[in-house]
Write a structure and sequence with these properties.
Helix content is 60%, strand content 0%. It has three helices and no strands. It is flat, with a radius of gyration of 17 Å. The relative contact order is 0.10.
């Protein structure tokens, strides 16, 4: 099988929802969870169109990157003390 890390055995499940997918792939970062959920269901919830959902996913991922940069800065500042 090519790229086995992209495949998960779900024979034991009757169905799979976005939350199960996140758990199966070990996605624990809340920003990434939110973005994945938005992208998997983009434009399908009847409230927002796909462009709005995609924009919100991008915004969330940008915040995720900001938070990671903040965390690195905090660690580096702590090492300097």
């Amino acid at each position: 099988m090519k790229h086995p890390h992209y495949h998960k055995d779900v024979k034991h499940l009757d169905s799979v929802d976005v939350y199960r997918v996140l758990a199966l792939f070990g996605v624990t970062d809340p920003c990434i969870q939110h973005a994945v959920k938005k992208l998997l269901c983009a434009g399908q919830r009847g409230v927002k169109d796909s462009s709005k959902d995609i924009r919100e996913a991008v915004d969330t991922l940008e915040r995720c990157l900001d938070m990671r940069a903040e965390d690195i800065r905090i660690v580096e500042e702590g090492m300097q003390k």
